[in-house]
Specification:
2 copies of one chain form a homodimer. The first copy, chain A, contains 9 helices and 5 strands. By secondary structure, chain A is of the alpha/beta class. Chain A has a 5-stranded parallel beta sheet with strand order 2-3-1-4-5, sandwiched between helices. In chain A, α1 (20-33) packs across α8 (198-214). The longest helix of chain A is centred in the middle third of the chain and has 25 residues, at 64-88.
Chain lengths: 222, 222
């Protein structure tokens, strides 16, 4: 497939608490030092639906189908209005989560693969997807260290796995993990060790990004 | 297919200006006089996304994919929170437009049939879909009589068919008409003459609804 635009779409994926936001920020700074124009994106950022999702989640009243559709709407708006123009202008777009996070969550809640694939089929394939691998236990510890109150949705409380939030969270994070691993194989994610020291993880991220950007000419004709 | 709930889902479809709202209101009153509990629904009514659509359309900045997804989100929320509970409680739900209006609009804008089918596959099949047939010319006259300012979206201005709103509207309404006719065949709509006198149209609507409700026992086992 030939590249459709002069920019690059780089995605960082991984379950909550894997260190994704830190790595995204560090990568952004590194790219900017090298002279690239960088645009950050992610979930719940669209002008259209970002706030709405936050408010709707607060009420814990979102049905599963509605939640998937609302996140897809948010992503479509962000793509149409910010991401595609940035790619066309030659920027590096860093996405702190993308369609794969939506897929993992929907599939963990019993959505059909075909439905999810079609629903999110409007989104362009990234040039590179980095997957920060960590264990559910690691992530839970990191989350708890940051905030002792476990989030309703991150704990998968809507799934009814357990009335105890801690138990539910661990079980839900295991379900998500299985979905992410399957997506990693299916979409060729580049795996990065998210459990390593922060600098070491960043070195792995940088290496993959360097290969992408410096091999840009070859990729263009591939 | 066996009926999944004790209530009935009755849909009125037809392009803007076909007299749908009048027929829905008249049908509701007629059903209530006969002792049925009636719940009205339609597009842009959900607590979650209804207002958002209205605001986003006002700005004329919605991309096509985003528009389809946002309407689907609105419908999913309305289904989960109002329609399904009403059907389970044995009410008659009258929908002033349903998935078919979303399909017609998306298909007229070049969306792929498979994508649209999967996207809206979460919505249950109605027990009866009434299709109010009128000509684009009739509808345009009715719309203009009500409001001399033609709506941006109803005129399909986003399609770039013509810079003249009147010309664009007529062309767009013809495109929609072709989509509705194809959907009518595909989903077995009951066609009603929307160009007839209001009472005559209503008589046709009532007749189809009477057959559905009084044949309820047979349908239950079909």
């Amino acid at each position: 497939m030939s590249r459709q635009w002069p920019g690059w779409l780089i995605v960082l994926e991984g379950a909550d608490g894997c260190g994704r936001s830190t790595q995204t920020a560090t990568l952004k700074a590194w790219l900017e030092r090298r002279g690239y124009a960088v645009v950050e994106t992610g979930l719940r950022r669209s002008a259209l639906a970002g706030d709405l999702i936050s408010r709707a989640k607060h009420g814990n009243r979102l049905g599963r189908t509605t939640m998937s559709l609302l996140y897809a709407t948010d992503l479509a708006d962000e793509l149409e209005n910010r991401v595609l123009p940035a790619l066309q202008a030659g920027s590096v777009v860093l996405a702190d989560r993308y369609i794969y996070a939506l897929m993992a969550r929907a599939l963990a809640r019993g959505a059909e693969q075909d439905w999810v694939d079609e629903l999110l089929g409007f989104a362009p394939q990234p040039d590179l997807t980095l997957y920060l691998q960590t264990t559910p236990e690691d992530r839970l510890q990191r989350s708890l260290a940051k905030d002792p109150h476990l989030d309703y949705w991150e704990s998968g409380m809507d799934l009814g796995l357990s009335p105890d939030r801690f138990t539910s969270c661990l079980q839900y994070q295991n379900l998500l993990q299985a979905q992410y691993e399957a997506l990693a194989d299916r979409y060729g994610f580049v795996k990065v060790d998210g459990a390593a020291a922060r600098n070491e993880t960043h070195e792995q991220v940088r290496e993959a990004v360097r290969r992408l950007l410096e091999g840009g000419e070859e990729l263009a004709g591939a």
